[in-house]
Design brief:
Ribbon_hlx_hlx; single chain; mainly alpha; Arc-like DNA binding domain-containing protein
């Protein structure tokens, strides 16, 4: 799971109200709407974060090697 950063954000009441209405229209929480808007702004500015690299698959447990069936 990706670790999420906690952030204190102070907003003007009118800005908060506008974001809250937008969030309600999109069926999102205010927090999710702020993240959506930030990601959209990053994409527009050409500064999108790189997606996290998938973790390498874990090797099989020791002793679990199975003999391959013969093709007779």
């Amino acid at each position: 799971m990706v670790e999420r950063k906690k952030l204190l954000l102070r907003l003007d009441q009118q800005v908060y109200d506008a974001i809250a209405k937008w969030a309600a229209d999109d069926l999102r929480s205010v927090n999710a709407q702020i993240e959506y808007a930030l990601r959209m702004a990053l994409r527009t500015a050409g500064r999108s974060p790189k997606p996290p690299r998938p973790a390498d698959p874990a090797p099989p447990p020791r002793g679990s090697e199975q003999a391959e069936p013969d093709d007779d």
